[in-house]
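Comment thread on ticket #2218

A.B. wrote:
> Attaching the input chain for the structure job we discussed in standup.
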Amino acid sequence: MPQLARRTGRAKPSAIMAVAEKAKKLKAEGRDIISFSIGVPNFLPGEHVYEAARKSLDKDSGQYGSNRGTDALLDAFLHHLEGSGLTGYTRRNIVAGVGAKHVLYNLAEALLDEGDTIAYPTPYWTTYQDIADIVGAVSLKLPCPPEQNYKLTPQQLDAALARKPKVFLFNNPSNPTGMVYSKDEVAALAEVVARHPDTWILLDDIYNRLVFDGVGYHNFLHFRPELRDRTVVIDSLSKTYGMPGWRVGLIAAPENVAQALVALNSNHITNLPEVVTAAAIAALTGPQDIPQRKCAEFATKRDRVLAALAGIPGVVCPRPEGAFYAFPDISVAFGKTHDGVVIHNDVDFCNALLEAKGVACVPGSAFGEPRALRISYTCADAQLDEGLSRIQAFFAELA
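C.D. wrote:
> Ran it. Output below, let me know if you need it in another format.
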């Protein structure tokens, strides 16, 4: 019998989606489940986005579109970049894809040959390793434990880049930790990057409009604009605009990288649908009041999460300043029991928490940090408070 390609054996289902599906199944069975698992913003875009989509359907061409993205979409993203202080790009530097995950996969295909090395800090978004494995790249993981606030140091980065990885992938604000690098921290890392010219730089900045506490969004290119000729900035509409299901990802890149992604799009997807493109343009160019309001709401929710976790003896959670995640170190529970169930590790903890209290979280080992778990706190306030109360109760019942 014919065999599957070897790369399919390296493709793993998303650990995040596995937890979300288990929670959904239990809920369908009648269990009272509160899910802190999947990273969705849990709000909808403004009416102007839907109106643009409806109008596009009224004048649908029925034709193929651009492999790169329509000029109007490219211009809208260029304007978006300029609002973030990233200037000097033209349409030839911009490419759209079916979400940031698709864009990241295309970048891996474009930049990484089998056996090449991609470096990235740990904790990391699960998809980084999954994509690296599929294309046959070697992952160089740079451990950033809670003791250093889950942040990469210039010394770590310098040592890693001295090994000349083909790609360095940097996520700010971070999924899963919610940590945001300050202006000085980003400037220091940019100086290190500038000393190592043999590595492509991928900046996964999809949470760049979800930053709290006045920290601000900072990018390597703000400090060393000459890095533009080997840096790719990755963005998405999913988190900022409440549009994860619309699947729009975008990059700003050197022309040769952008053209490589255009060629891959021509073979993979051909183009984004007209209706999705119209909605994306409206989101980027229309009123920004909903994203701004939601960012403020997420900051308030973050405070509720931190207050609840601070009341649990032994739990440590570095203060997140962006996105909508908290990533507490819950290793104080390891070796203890709950209702006779021994908790050896983060997976045991999350399974016991879900079974006993109906709260779904993703184990930290899915993100490369087995002492932790991820809480996605975008649900309604009443659910958030109830879920946090159940977590507190679970810890109180450990023996």
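A.B. wrote:
> Thanks. Noting for the ticket: The mean pLDDT is 95.
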